[in-house]
């Protein structure tokens, strides 16, 4: 039966890298149908809303969502609910994709592209499990007047224990399937939200005697990630810390243009997107690295369509293309977005 993939390409380099990911999906020979819909700044321009209801309906109806990126400096002054970013936050919440998996592994041949020493970078094979539906992102927020009469901005950070439990379970399960190590990252020395997080995760350890659980404060975790990233197997953390640590992890393996992600709901339905944004500084120039989008498409096949073999083929093709010297500008090379995808396609 034909599987329907909703393609929400969005802004900036979103459409450029998503087009290449679609090309790679088509090359698998699987029975896939693609339907596009506007989102982000593109959605706002066309309909006055960053997440048009028809786009959300398509995302719900589809077997999986392939997402590009949203964000456009042109819209940064709009009220928050109309900005492009409202689309991605809205769709994550509406689809209840609470579990964001962000793997980072060094590709052979990219030791020189990492911001770290080759022998340090070479040890990287980690998975960041980022909570995606809660935290300070979704708490009450606004502007008010402080007691001293100053304009004040505020954003409430909170997690309830059910939210922590369900994401921690994803982290424990992932560790169980990998090398058996789970590191929970929080800021429990300062934040009550984090204290609750740590209490809940600690209490769950008894259900996973085969997983070695450790805790780090987020500041230390950021430091350890560049000091000795090979120590990490699975990292589980909240929405904000996971956002920051995953961009950091990307440079440890060479480029933000390499890291894919899967955002899954409780039933395995998902949205798939690179961890990077719309990159306005290089948009429209055919320079963006499409690998993060292509690897996101591989995750889509594996997690939402049960096509693990095709996913393996795509991932192996990306690895071979890179090992063979294919490089976009972010990796110190000269290939265009399309030429990089061509190199991957040749290896499939
Ligand atoms: P960004 O990730 O878009 O770009 C950061 C830097 O990395 C830029 O120098 C960019 O050129 C480079 N880069 C990113 N992706 C690349 C790729 N595939 N190949 C080569 N280089 C790449 O982050 P930013 O500049 O902070 O944000 C730009 C816009 O994107 C903002 O509006 C932001 O809100 C939005 N954003 C969206 C998402 C998303 O849709 N998931 C994620 C992050 C940022
Ligand atoms: C990401 C992005 C988003 C986030 C923004 C654009 C809302 O940075 O997907 O990593 O913070 O989650
Ligand atoms: Mn981010």
Automatic annotation (TrEMBL):
Q: Which UniProt keywords apply?
A: Amino-acid biosynthesis, Branched-chain amino acid biosynthesis, Cytoplasm, Leucine biosynthesis, Magnesium, Manganese, Metal-binding, NAD, Oxidoreductase
Give the main location: cytoplasm
Q: Which InterPro entries match?
A: IsoCit/isopropylmalate_DH_CS, IsoPropMal-DH-like_dom, Isopropylmalate_DH
Localization recorded for this chain is: Cytoplasm
Q: Which residues bind NAD(+)?
A: 277-289
Pathway, per record? Amino-acid biosynthesis; L-leucine biosynthesis; L-leucine from 3-methyl-2-oxobutanoate: step 3/4
User: Might you report a single GO cellular component term?
Assistant: cytosol
Report whether Amino-acid biosynthesis shows up as a keyword of the record: yes
Instruction: List the catalysed reactions.
Output: (2R,3S)-3-isopropylmalate + NAD(+) = 4-methyl-2-oxopentanoate + CO2 + NADH
**What cofactor does this chain's UniProt record say it requires?**
Mn(2+); Mg(2+)
Site Important for catalysis: which residues? 137, 187
Would you identify the family this protein belongs to, as annotated?
Belongs to the isocitrate and isopropylmalate dehydrogenases family. LeuB type 1 subfamily.
Name of the protein in its database record: 3-isopropylmalate dehydrogenase
Q: Which organism is it from?
A: Sphingomonas jinjuensis
The taxonomic lineage of its organism, from the top, reads:
Bacteria, Pseudomonadati, Pseudomonadota, Alphaproteobacteria, Sphingomonadales
């Amino acid at each position: 039966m034909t599987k329907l993939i909703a393609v929400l390409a969005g802004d900036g380099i979103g459409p450029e890298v998503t087009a290449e990911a679609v090309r790679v999906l088509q090359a698998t020979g699987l029975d896939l149908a693609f339907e596009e819909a506007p989102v982000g700044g593109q959605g706002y321009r066309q309909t006055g809303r960053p997440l048009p209801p028809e786009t959300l309906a398509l995302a719900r109806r589809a077997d999986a969502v392939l997402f590009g990126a949203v964000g456009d400096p042109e819209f940064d002054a709009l009220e928050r609910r109309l900005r492009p970013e409202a689309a991605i936050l809205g769709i994550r919440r509406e689809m209840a994709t609470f579990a964001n998996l962000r793997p980072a592994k060094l590709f052979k041949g990219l030791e020189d592209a990492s911001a770290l020493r080759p022998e340090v970078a070479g040890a990287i094979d980690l998975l960041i499990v980022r909570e995606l539906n809660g935290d300070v992102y979704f708490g009450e927020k606004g502007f008010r007047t402080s007691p001293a009469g100053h304009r004040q901005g505020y954003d409430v950070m909170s997690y309830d224990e059910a939210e922590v439990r369900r994401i921690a379970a994803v982290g424990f399960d992932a560790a169980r399937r990998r090398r058996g190590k789970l590191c929970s990252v929080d800021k429990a020395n300062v934040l009550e939200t984090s204290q609750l997080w740590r209490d809940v995760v600690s209490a769950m350890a008894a259900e996973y005697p085969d997983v070695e659980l450790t805790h780090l404060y987020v500041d230390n975790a950021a430091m350890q990630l560049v000091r000795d990233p090979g120590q990490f197997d699975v990292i589980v953390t909240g929405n904000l810390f996971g956002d920051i640590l995953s961009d950091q992890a990307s440079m440890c393996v060479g480029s933000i243009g390499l890291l894919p992600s899967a955002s899954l709901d409780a039933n395995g339905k998902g949205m798939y997107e690179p961890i990077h944004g719309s990159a306005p500084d290089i948009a429209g120039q055919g320079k963006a690295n499409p690998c993060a989008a292509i690897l996101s498409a591989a995750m889509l096949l594996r997690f939402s369509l049960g096509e693990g073999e095709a996913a393996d083929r795509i991932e192996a093709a990306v690895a071979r293309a890179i090992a063979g010297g294919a490089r976009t500008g972010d990796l110190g090379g000269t290939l265009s977005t399309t030429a990089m995808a061509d190199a991957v396609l040749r290896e499939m």
